[in-house]
């Protein structure tokens, strides 16, 4: 019956478990990001901070406006067909995963230029032209990604502008095939991704 006996401890004196470390709130993350930026677009950043995977600011350490600027530059470079403009948006080392799943870390610009047409074929350029912030997902401390991980934009400094760091052709091909299969199962017209 000892369990039924009253204790001499008041509720304030009873030991409690240590609270779990709370996830940072998006507003806190934005304040931290903005403290690392000379210019900020507060309204845009607040309105567009949440995407699939959570708050851009908390997951990546930069703002939605920085991602949007990088996405816009990638779209314009892909539309222009100007290789130099596209190369300006890449980070090094660039991780390239080909259609067979072979991984290559490309360390310098000359090497990227040597395999440029393989990496940025017409379907990859078409994907770059369709990028939109609203279709991005984020993974904590990894970056923002599109098409199930076919393209990854990564931030290398707090508040900074992300760069294209991973091109995964294998995932893109799998995503395209899955979209075609889904369109066929729903008796819709297959989506012409290529």
Summary, kept brief:
The protein has helices at 26-35, 42-48, 56-60, 64-80, 83-87, 109-114, 116-119, 122-130, 169-185, and strands at 50-51, 54-55, 90-97, 103-106, 137-139, 143-146, 151-154, 163-168. By secondary structure, it is of the alpha+beta class.
What would you note in describing this structure?
With 194 residues, the protein is of the alpha+beta class. The protein has one domain. It is built from 9 helices and 8 strands. It has helices at residues 26-35, 42-48, 56-60, 64-80, 83-87, 109-114, 116-119, 122-130, 169-185; strands spanning 50-51, 54-55, 90-97, 103-106, 137-139, 143-146, 151-154, 163-168. A 6-stranded mixed sheet has the order 4-3-8-7-6-5. A two-stranded antiparallel ribbon has the order 1-2. α4 (64-80) crosses α8 (122-130). Residues 1-26 are annotated as: Disordered.
Question: How many DSSP-defined strands?
Answer: 8
Query: Approximately how much helix is present in the residues?
Result: 40-55%
Radius of gyration: 23 Å
Q: Are there runs of 5+ residues with pLDDT below 50, and where?
A: 1-6, 10-22
Query: Strand-and-helix sequence, N→C?
Result: HHEEHHHEEHHHEEEEH
